[in-house]
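INFO  loader      accepted 1 record
INFO  loader      residues=756
INFO  predictor   begin
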Amino acid sequence: DAPLSTICKCVGLAQKWQRLAGLGFAVLAAVMLMLILGTSPARAQGISFDDSGPDLMVLSNGTDYEVAFRKANGSIAYILDKTTGQQVSAGSRFECLWGAVFPGAAPEYVGGCSFSAGGANRFTYTWAPDSHTLTLRYTPDPGAPQRVSAQVSVTASEEPWFDMRLSLENHWGAVLDYVLFPSDLVFLESEIQEALLPALPGVVLTSAFFQQNRTYTARYPGYPGLFADYVSLSTSKGRMALYTLNPEGGARPVVMGFVHDDAYLADSTFFYHAFGARIQNGAAFETPWVRIRVGQAHLDAIWAYRLDNGFDRLPSLADKLGAKHQQVVQAPLYKADAVQLNMPFSSYPFLLAQVPSPGILHPVAFQPGGHDESYPDFLPPDPAWGTTANFAEMSRQVQDQGFLVMPYTNPTWWDDGSPTLRGLAPTTPITHVTVLDDQGAPVYEYYGPHGGYVVSPHAPFVQERLARLAISMTVDLPSDLLFEDQIGARPWLFDQNPFAPDAVSYMDGWLAHTRAYSHTLLMTELGFDRLAETEVGFHGSLLLPERLGYTSDWWGAGAWRPYPLATAMLRDKVLFYQHDLAPETFTFGKETLTWNLALGFMLSYDLAQSSFGGGLGSPWLDVVPAFQRRVLARYADELVTGFDNLTDQVTRTQFETHAVIANWDQAQPYAAADHTLPPLGVQVASTDGALIAGVFTRFHGLPLSPGDHYLIEERGLYAVRVAQPLGADTPLVIPPPAGGGLAPPEVWAYDKNDQR
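INFO  predictor   done
INFO  writer      dumping tokens
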């Protein structure tokens, strides 16, 4: 039932339905003047509305934007960026401002282009100058057997935006699954310079993506990590951003993306934006307000999205973590896979005695059967590793060593062989536990050879079992944080479970779950904007699918680049990490370190050695804690405030008090003032001069010995501390501290454990 499959059918179905209902698009201007109210130009406080022309009604705020709607059917004719004086969008594809999709019905589509000013299915409009609101009404033929009535409200602002909202009633005789709004805004591919989509942490699709006639759509929320219902574009004609406003609500499910198209306009792309609805015949549906910003750069639009949706008012990361804040931001994540480590819990303190603290110990695969088995029955653990009491004692011991403990759980997917599901009472059928598909069957998924059910967060049995799981993982085990896999990664779906309030509330159910247990300091896989209220950590980014080879298929090799959208939007509310389980993206090399420092991600490491790295013998066990504790911790919850290209292969990320220069070139070094970064090297500098750190081949103007040097210089008034966790012996030139005076300097050497 993917709505994208209906895109190619929509126009033909709309035209077919129009023929069945006796509709037409062409309407005489004289008839329109009799039907439509408010035909004289109006202006109030800089906002103007002019419908004096024969075909268009034009809404403008005078300085930022102009949007024209067709008098025939209310579709958008163009959106103009007044800062450039040119049209940034060619308007609604096939003159459909909105669309409604009824999979399996005949016909399965109706939209704004199915109405006209003079037809049986009638379009009218009114302008209210006092509220700056244009109302577009779509009234179906009362005698037609299938009907959808709709109303679109458009509110103009003196700021660089206008808002739109669609309300409709379904009398089609079928279930309405998807509502396209605004439907399919068109852009010429030759004009698109770049488009920003919210795949964690953000992905810029370059002009090459569009020149290659590519199509990409994904779900929000859901894998591969659509973080927000947001998009922004830069074209040769201007800039535009589109996003929903839902400051008091949950996650409104959406399918969104860019679709190549030659059917309406040759060599064009349209932005596909469809709300999940699933409403029955006779029911009503209303979208949230959709805001279209014109003429603003990516970061300006991202910060506006943050403010417009109230995310600035969420509890800060420091407030959520409380007394643990400083320890958490200094602590890299240490994955501890019980099967891979192959040691009892009693040996963990000896293992961690060889690991620098602080750190977040992340036990995984400790339950019977290992990873992806026994869920939700994580305790008692597999007896090969010990008892629950042994697990708890180990946790207390490593906490005394300076570590935090964050055990793994997955509340969303349960093993059908688990004691919980094998022991269901006759009064609790499996259909009262799981998500149900359109046929009323339980949704079952495989992860490799491991099978299990997708559970419904609204089911009372699920809620009761997860309450006991939270107690066992945070009370029976003295955990500091709790990891809940997949809550931030699961694509939204229609849930027909009888306990669900409606079919599109699946993600809202998990949001409610995280609100109930936010006091346990939750982290999750991937994540999305609404979860920043309740979570303290999101794990995952597009770096993993890139290294797995997926992004070339999605976006094309060399046709995209990462962008710090999420860390500009919400980094003061939640920490960002790479995936908690994937060795492909643990910090085992220079490129990953540079990626994390530049885009604002915390560091992670695998205590078990694999072909990717990790283990106790790797030099990166020195690099990771040193850079986390002495570098990243300084700006761990600072927002991104700027992101620029210094060259085609070098970026500069500005955080609130730190700046990061990243050399993404795999072959050429980059000279950054008195320092030189090798290929894939990085430099972090605080604005007050207290820190300069990174990967260098020249430092303070002096060439270093051959090879890369990982250096951390911390500068105070009377002392300078320089650490090299990785690199060959080398001469260094260090400017003296500002308060050193004329006294000769004293120099001390320390080992990696900070022992003189």
